[in-house]
Amino acid sequence: MVMESTVVAPAISGDARWKAFLLALWTFGVIAFAAEGVDRLGFGGRPWFGWWDAIVVSTAQPFVVRLEDPHPGGASAAAGIHGGDRIDLREHDLDARTRVMWQLPATQPTRLTIHRDHETLPISVTGSTIWDGSSTRRISHALLGAPAAFFLACAFLIIRRRSQTYAGRALASFLICLTIAEMTNPAGASVPDGNFYLLLAFGSNVFSLAAAFIVIRLSSQFGVRSGWRSSVELVAYATNAVSFLGGGAACVGLWTMWFDPIPFVMGSSWGILRIASAVAVAITVVVAVACSERSTQPRAGWLLLPLAPMFIAVSMLGNTVGAQSWRLLWAIIFGSSILSLAGAALITFALLKRRVLDVGFVLSRSIVVAVLSLVVVAAFILLEWILGSVVANVSHATGVAANAALALVLGLSIRMMHQRVDDLVDSVMFRKRHEDTRALREFAKEAAFVSGRDALVDIAIEKLRRHTDARSAGLFLRNNGTYRAIRHFSEGVAVVGENDAAVLALKTWHKPLDPHAYETALKGDLALPMVARGEVLGFVVCGERAGGEAYAPDEIDALAQFAQGLGTAFDGLSDAREGETLARSIRDLRESIDRHFAKARS
Questions:
Q1: How do 64-68 and 55-58 pair as beta strands?
Q2: Which are the contacts of 221, defined by CB distance < 8 A and separation ≥ 6?
């Protein structure tokens, strides 16, 4: 996965609005993730999420489902349910209908009417929790949902560092929407109220559709366009839209009972359509990468390909409802979990190795959080030791008050501690980088006092060599309708036309940019304009970093100042040369006039 390293945006305020929107969406995703964890695992009490411990499958009769293979000692068996018992949805209220379709709550009984052969039996069943009985597979199921936490962490880092780029916004939005779709999937959640159950189902459907459309749209930005490729994308849009309508029909049918909702939830045809819509998204991704030029294909591949298994995984989870056997159910669960883990692994590698984010930033944030957590935990451990060993016969109320006071003190001082720890980690881990950025900014001011064009160019290229880890770099100046490399190290392009796509963007926005985002002859990861009096006199091009990471925002800012200082210096040298030429012309004219009058007098 690869993303643009810099910004080309016509409006800074638009970037700020996007960042605020993404942070709000991310906050909603975190709330959904936390709520799902509490729902499944419990927090200070019994979890809401309950297990049937039986398989609920559709039948040939409309509105009727059948219970199969109840586990001995499980919730269904304890309630007296036998394999083959049938439930008619029309005989139940909305709360019971939604629980039959998805999962039981573990905090209250659900009253059902069971049809067994020619008998009609009232029963009351309460779902079992993840901690009841043999819970190995249940706990494994919960732990295999951990990639969602990683997706949210990745989304937050991307929002912090790359929200100004289109690819960054799209990737962060996809990760958040996919996480919310998974966390609100009613097959993996349990709530007491049927209306809220339907709201969860509809919300999961909406966010799943949004994730699909984001991937398709992002894929369309890569590679050569063609008619058949547009048809592939249209099929992907259509299949996902139809799948969304099926999910909506299930909600309407369960709520109103105007028509049988079971086929839309458990039917094999709609299950196949859900998988087909996910596969269609994956095909658009593969086509986009295949149609990309060889120079941009690795970047497109690392950005797009990890998204396909993740989306398929979430789509597979929707097919756990109505699975005909325990083996099929767990195969779907573990298969989707493996695909999610594969996507998470690819994203991890891309984040750390393929220039999406710089490794140092990720590592430093982890260290800061770890140190702060250690301080907080150590403070509470020390307080408990003091209360238990030093202060004798302390009452429970006193202990609670002491813990509350400590929590208040830590809460008020956490910002200060975070700043101190952040500064310490930053000074240790990024000392060389800070020295380099400071040197580049200092030269941006010193450049105006360098006398001589060749001397300025030599010093500038040496600064780039010494204070960046770019594998290559070059200085381009405008010359007779083109921009020519007047100095560079390692390989690079010698001449670029004024109408080159990247050059036009530099001249339009006067902002740093990533040449990979344009059809351009420039080779490198970062281009920075040298602007003077509103005109782009030239630009600095830096190649891939030696470590393969992204250029950090502070590095980009320092290099932008460096390029701006060079532009001012080159403009000053041009003025000086023009001034010298004008002075020489005036001097020659004066000498000519003096000679003329001297000759006339003689």
A1: antiparallel
A2: 166, 167
Q: Could you read off the pLDDT of 156-179 as tens digits, one per residue?
A: 877 876 777 777 788 889 889 988
Residue 539 has pLDDT above 90, yes or no: yes
Buried b (16+ CB within 10 A) or exposed e, 59-73: eeeebbbbbbebbee
Rounded distance between C-alpha atoms, residue 524 and residue 529, angstroms: 14
- Average pLDDT of the chain is 78
> Mind listing the pLDDT tens digit for each residue in 6-48?
434 343 456 678 888 999 999 998 888 888 877 777 766 677 8
Query: E strands of 481-534, at which residues?
Result: 482-489, 495-497, 526-532
Closest to 216 (Cα-Cα) out of 279, 158, 127: 279
> Pairing state of beta strands 495-497 and 49-50?
unpaired
Q: How far is 185 from 49, CA to CA, in rounded Å?
A: 12
Q: 224-246: per-residue pLDDT in tens?
A: 888 898 899 999 999 999 989 98
Distance from C-alpha of 270 to C-alpha of 237, rounded to nearest angstrom: 16
CB-CB contact of 184 with 207 (8 Å):
yes
Q: Which residues pair with 113 in a beta bridge?
A: 122
- Cβ-count burial of 2 within 10 angstroms (0-12 exposed, 13-18 middle, 19+ buried)? buried
User: What is the DSSP code (8-state) at residue 133?
Assistant: S
- pTM (two decimals): 0.65
All structural domains of the chain: 12-43+137-357 (no CATH), 55-135 (2.30.42.10), 360-429 (no CATH), 434-581 (3.30.450.40)
Return the DSSP state at 480. T
> Shortest CA distance to 287 belongs to which of 306, 302, 301, 273?
301
Nearest to 89 by CA among 104, 101, 106: 101
Residue 300's Cβ-side half-sphere holds a number of Cα atoms within 13 Å equal to 23
**Would you say 332 and 317 are in contact if contact means Cβ atoms under 8 Å apart?**
yes
- For residue 495, how many other CB atoms are within 10 A of its CB? 12
CB contact set of 515 (below 8 Å; sequence gap of 6+): 502, 522, 523, 524, 525, 526, 527, 541
Largest CA distance in the chain: 141
Write out the two tokens for 157.
């880092």
Sheet strands side by side (includes 119-125): 55-58, 64-68, 86-88, 110-116, 119-125
- Specify the residue for token string 């190795």: 353
Burial class (CB in 10 A: 0-12, 13-18, 19+), 32: buried
Each residue of 432-443: pLDDT tens digit?
Answer: 778 888 899 999
Q: Are 277 and 236 in contact (CB under 8 A)?
A: yes
For 602, the 3-state DSSP assignment is coil
Determine contact, residues 254/237, Cβ cutoff 8 Å: no
Enclosing H/E stretch for 124: strand 119-125
pLDDT of 529 over the 90 cut:
yes
For 380-410, the pLDDT digits (tens) are 666 666 655 555 555 556 666 666 676 677 6
